[in-house]
Amino acid sequence: MSHRFPLRVYYEDTDLAGIVYYANYLKFIERGRSEWVRERGVDQSRLRAETGIVFAVRRVEADYLRPARFDDLLEVETRLVSIGGASLVLDQDVLRGDERLFAARVVIVCLDAQGRAARLPAEVRRAFA
User: Which Gene3D superfamilies match (predicted)?
Assistant: First the structure.
């Protein structure tokens, strides 16, 4: 099951050539992941306050396929690939209509308050599964 998050490219997202600056795709997919988590009923602020657990990006494999430009209407598609004991693997694409502009595989880890790997709580695992 995939999640789609719409966004528009603003002038501030572009570089001198008028295309989306490469690092901004990482911001776009971060927004998409945050909305994916929220849609599944996981309140990250509450999770941190009550358990000390947070999510952090451990790895990103990114492919820049085609440029997005100012005023393009895009969608970030997020799909769960797998759930480990303390990690999630997600595939994320940035799309303009049916055209895939950017593709990433992202590994997210669950960390405790001391920054060490922690098992995903059962209720979070159920929400993501």
Answer: Hotdog Thioesterase
Per annotation, catalytic residue among 13, 15, 63, 71: 15
CATH at residue 44: 3.10.129.10
CB 125 within 8 A of CB 85: no
What would you report as the CA-atom Rg of the chain, rounded to the nearest whole angstrom?
16
Any catalytic annotation for residue 112? no
Cα 57 from Cα 41, distance rounded (Å): 20
Q: Give how many domains the chain has, as a whole number.
A: 1
Domain assignment of residue 123, given as a range: 2-128
pTM to 2 decimal places: 0.94
Q: Residue 15 CB: number of other CB atoms within 10 A?
A: 12
Tens-place pLDDT, residues 49-68: 999 999 999 999 999 999 99
